[in-house]
Amino acid sequence: MKYVPQALTSFNTQGFVKLVADKETDYLIGAHIIGFNAGEIIQTASLIISFGKKYGVSLIDISTEFFPYLVQVEAIKLAILALDKDVEKLSCCAN
User: Fold this and answer.
1) C-alpha pair distances (Å), 36 with each of 2, 46, 52, 53
2) DSSP secondary structure code for residue 66 in this structure
3) Is residue 43 part of a domain?
4) Under 8 Å CB-to-CB from 20, ≥6 apart: which residues?
5) Is the pTM of this model over 0.85?
6) Residue 27 is assigned to a structural domain of this protein
7) Which structural domain, as residue segments, surrounds residue 50?
8) Which pLDDT does position 85 carry in this prediction?
9) Which of the 8 DSSP states describes residue 92?
């Protein structure tokens, strides 16, 4: 959570997002979220898991979608991008 802009602005960066993806399909198959508002963030992860199975929505598809700025759920998009990029260089507010 230390790279999530909303967490930085609220001085509440404790916690993490861990995503589990299927290498063959690039679908999200699991998520662990610990921290402030984890219950709200996990809802987005569960929708991504469901849509991957039902509609063939991959993590690449999700990573190109718009995520609202300055909300905790942005942690999901940053975690997806971190699968193959350095998030520290992506986030506007990272140290």
Assistant:
1) 12, 17, 26, 28
2) -
3) yes
4) 28, 29, 30, 31, 32
5) no
6) yes
7) 5-89
8) 80
9) T
Q: Sorting pLDDT into bands at 50, 70 and 90, what band is 92?
A: low
Number of domains within the chain? 1
CA distance 30 to 89: 25
- Alpha carbon distance 44, 33 (integer Å): 11
> Length of the chain, please?
95
Considering the domain boundaries, does residue 94 fall inside one? no
Which token pair is 40?
């709200």
d(CA 70, CA 53) in angstroms, rounded, equals 29
C-alpha to C-alpha distance for 77 and 13, rounded to whole angstroms: 16
DSSP 8-state code for residue 44: H
Instruction: With respect to residue 79, please indicate whether it lies within any of the assigned structural domains.
Output: yes
Q: Is the pLDDT of residue 67 over 90?
A: no
CATH, residue 60: 3.30.390.30
- Contact 76/67 with Cβ under 8 angstroms? yes
Contacts of 46 (CB under 8 A, 6+ apart): 31
Alpha helices (runs of H) in the chain, residue ranges in sequence order: 5-9, 38-55, 59-63, 74-81, 87-90
